[in-house]
């Protein structure tokens, strides 16, 4: 937001503008309209989900957490309603991140910075903090006046400021408080926190999140979007001539003139711009820019200037949407007298949708077909094989059994490879010596050392595959793993 | 880069910084002041580091910092703590009997972990890092034991060694029947073939089995026992099985019988503390061949 420099005013080196700019405080004016209503609705939804989700219960049976969404770090488990993920399944999060990133691209190529304008936490909380500010200190003009007034502060003003910051801190504290509830049983933790029995780390995180919310939404605000967030820069590379962006329709708006003059001009059959230079779009802008200067880095495309301009247009009896979701192609087409075209299905949007569908499909498929019983086998490497005194050959394997279900399992291990293999689990005397049977407790892993011996007559000459079948005795579920059986 | 005179850019309505690289000029986009202030604050913060932590190199040593912090001291403290934790556990290990260690999962895990580390430091040069052995150095994973494979026997072997010079060491060795003139060359060949036949290995077509048996009975059964089944009291290997410490081919057997064998296992008592030796015995026993 650099001031335009008139070249004639440049006299010395120092006149080429400052290298550091003081921040211009933004005082967004309250506004009502379609987009404001959408924003209120989405804010209520997003905050509602964030604050209340930890309290949603989900019955997983006795002994298992009953919280619908829970990140259980001490036990390395992630619960999401009917899904329970283990650390080794972290690729689901990778998939989720891919889907999220491409969804952001897709939003962008359809309707610009929808994320920034309506859904981003920075926008949602800043919007909420502005609402508090307005409620306590008044609307744009009053706030500007109060900030400008010099001299000693009156008690009324001081109490206003204290009240505003108190409400902000309360919201910020609640934000941090909700954050920690995702990591522990929410009702229990709330009880512990209010009785000061909670774990230290919970208080520390509440403190951190309170501080970030208070500072980012109360003070940093649009500076986060303009200077700290990389997305505006990436967004500039993702948009194209078809993407709908919040746009000032300069073809309709220019040349700016007054209401009276415009009526006169139109009476003579001359063109007059619809923009009456009322600066309402600037007054409501939460980033303090003038949308009429064209697409800008700072614009988060929240649509509030559309509401502001629509209100003015309605009042002066001109058609709405002088500012609206539009693109370069249609501005050009209108100037050429052609009807606007909107093309949502394009190579770009199809490609993004295809990626989302493919990644999402793979995730759903793997999630639906994933086994709750699993086995991993690791062959001993040193030594790979041992010859025993009777000429038989023994290979040792580290076997890791995973029982992801909510019940204990009795499983049997079979090794199939060279003829007449015998298997023995170190440290466990199975009642069935030739087919070791063991119990794996629910929701846990067991690591065993398995000794597999091939008698002298069936010693393989070289390495041959050996398959391990792990069978749940009760349910018949089978998990298999393949490794090699080697001779010394 | 040319001079530092900025100029007006009519397209953007901004001034340039006056910097120019290959004709590309840089617009002056001022940094936000809070950013600049934050930047200077990080520098101030860094100066704080100089004062609090060791920072500047001096001729000998460096500035110490007011907190007297040193990462080396941190390591020393952590190592001391580790030793303390280990100390308590190793005392428990030293107090338990070998059989009890194998029955207690916690002690067994500790013994195996400790044993594995100590094995790597002390035993691996001869027996290999996995205990797989080499020619002349027994494989500790198999079920063939020269001096016995029970926990107590393994412990004893580790403590005192074999032919190690320790008073309680395992003694007894393979005599040099050829070098000492007890057997003649052709007799050695004959008995070597007889020994091969004991474990089902092919023999020379022209060798005299009866003569071989006679030589064996006269010279070998004293240690290797009737039928060559071996004797763990004397460390005499079983000659009927499939495991050969030095090799089962005729040439190697002739060398063994002719020159004798007397591999040395050092005594570890005195070099390692009793609890550690116990841990090692448990570890070796758990490799898969323990009796």
UniProtKB/TrEMBL annotation, chain A:
The keyword Metal-binding applies. The chain crosses the membrane at residues 40-58, 90-107, 161-182, 202-220, 350-368. Residues 266-294 form the 4Fe-4S ferredoxin-type domain. One of its GO terms (cellular component) is plasma membrane. GO terms for molecular function: 4 iron, 4 sulfur cluster binding; metal ion binding. Keywords: 4Fe-4S, Electron transport, Iron, Iron-sulfur, Membrane, Metal-binding, Transmembrane, Transmembrane helix, Transport. NCBIfam families: ccoG_rdxA_fixG (TIGR02745). This is Cytochrome c oxidase accessory protein CcoG. It comes from Bradyrhizobium rifense.
From TrEMBL, chain B:
It comes from the Bacteria. Heme c 1 binds at residues 123, 126-127, 265. The chain crosses the membrane at residues 34-56. GO terms for molecular function: electron transfer activity; heme binding; iron ion binding; oxidoreductase activity. Its cofactor is heme c. InterPro entries: CcoP_N, CcoP_N_sf, Cyt_c-like_dom, Cyt_c-like_dom_sf, Cyt_C_IC, Cyt_c_oxidase_cbb3_su3, Cytochrome_c_Oxidase_Subunit. It is found in: Cell inner membrane. GO terms for biological process: oxidative phosphorylation; proton transmembrane transport. One of its GO terms (cellular component) is plasma membrane. Keywords: Cell inner membrane, Cell membrane, Electron transport, Heme, Hydrogen ion transport, Ion transport, Iron, Membrane, Metal-binding, Oxidoreductase, Repeat, Respiratory chain, Transmembrane, Transmembrane helix, Transport. Pfam families: Cytochrom_C, Cytochrome_CBB3, FixP_N. Residues 110-199, 207-288 form the Cytochrome c domain. Pathway: Energy metabolism; oxidative phosphorylation. Binds 2 heme C groups per subunit. Heme c 2 binds at residues 174, 220, 223-224. NCBIfam families: ccoP. Component of the cbb3-type cytochrome c oxidase at least composed of FixN, FixO, FixQ and FixP. Belongs to the CcoP / FixP family. C-type cytochrome. Part of the cbb3-type cytochrome c oxidase complex. FixP subunit is required for transferring electrons from donor cytochrome c via its heme groups to FixO subunit. From there, electrons are shuttled to the catalytic binuclear center of FixN subunit where oxygen reduction takes place. The complex also functions as a proton pump. This is Cbb3-type cytochrome c oxidase subunit. It comes from Bradyrhizobium rifense. The lineage of its organism: Bacteria, Pseudomonadati, Pseudomonadota, Alphaproteobacteria, Hyphomicrobiales. The gene is ccoP.
